[in-house]
Amino acid sequence: MSAENSRTGTPRTRVALLGTGPWARSTHAPAIAAHPGTDLVGVWGRRAEAAAELAGVYDVPAYTGEDGLGELLGEADAVAIALPPDVQAPLAVRAAEAGCHLLLDKPVATTVAGAREVAAAAEEAQVASVVFCTLRLAPPTAAWIAEQAERGGWFTARAQWLASLFAPGSTHAYASPWRKEKGALWDVGPHALSVLIPVLGDVTAVTAVPGPNGTAHLVLRHTSGASSTATLGLGAPTAAAGVEIALYGEHGTAEPPRWGESPVAYAAALDALLEAARTGRPHPCDARFGVRLTEILAEAEAQLA
């Protein structure tokens, strides 16, 4: 542990950031640096110049390569990962084996085997883990999800998450190669499922059909007996982009509140990780939940193929 939290007198957790892309710059790094319970102790990147640039903003060391990763893990109590999922998974295993708690991006991996390896490593090392599913962790929507799960009585639900990252002519900063390859199913599918599952129950059956420009349509059956649909796209026309979620049941219709800016949600994810590490109680959105998301998405992907 590092210096103490001035408000509580407890040691702050030393967090290593793995990744240097747009999300790392706009969300992960500023949230870690601003959090009263954490110290950003270094930035690791696959490109030395990118790691040096981001680390310089926060006056912390930059690391790259295998040796650099090992050195940084030795300085950290936890890692925050902002990397493509199939790069994230083996690094998360290595971090867990080094005794670091894991703040993971979604999806944990794009193969079931990769996700299971991360969860197994965390369990073996007895480190805490949290998967950053924005709506599940942002305070306004987290409270709403808990409230709707407690109310029950839901008959069906729908989630529509359309973005224009790959619309014709788009030059969006988040249009990364892995999103182009794996599509909306893997990128925004975890967000939709992280709302539907805690309210309606685990998914017992999934049917997936393709839509235009990489859009995926899912029909889900849940343990509660309710059904839901999810429309997921990254290539929608700009004017059609947006997020809509609604529950339907004996209480009528319920829609979530706005969840605010990503750094605020990420601060809540840090809170969740620190609490899980302190108490030893797994967070509902931990690596095991990440495995379940991966299993559902892999089944849907197989049907789309």
Key phrases:
305 residues, alpha/beta, Rossmann fold, Dihydrodipicolinate Reductase, domain 2, 2 domains, six-stranded parallel sheet, six-stranded mixed sheet, 11 helices, 12 strands, 45% helix, globular
Structure description:
The chain folds into two domains: 13-132 and 263-285, NAD(P)-binding Rossmann-like Domain (Rossmann fold); 139-259, Dihydrodipicolinate Reductase, domain 2 (2-Layer Sandwich). A six-stranded parallel β-sheet has the order 3-2-1-4-5-6, with helices on both faces. It has a six-stranded mixed β-sheet with strand order 8-9-10-7-11-12. The chain is globular. Helix 1 (22-34) crosses helix 10, helix 4 (85-97) packs parallel to helix 5 and helix 5 (112-125) runs antiparallel to helix 11. It has eleven helices and twelve strands. It is of the alpha/beta class and 305 residues long. 45% of the residues lie in helices and 23% in strands.
Give the strand order, joined by hyphens, for the main sheet: 3-2-1-4-5-6
Beta strands, count = 12
Report the radius of gyration as a whole number of Å: 19 Å
CATH architecture identity of the largest domain = 3-Layer(aba) Sandwich
Low-confidence stretches: none
Biggest sheet descriptor: 6 strands, parallel
Number of spatially distinct domains:
2
Bulk shape: globular
Helix content class: 40-55%
- Mean pLDDT rating: 94
Distance between the termini: 47 Å
CATH class of the largest domain: Alpha Beta
The CATH superfamily title of the largest domain: NAD(P)-binding Rossmann-like Domain
**Number of helical regions:** 11
Secondary-structure element order, as H and E?
A: EHEHEHEHEHEHHEHHEEEEEHH
Helix vs. strand class: alpha/beta
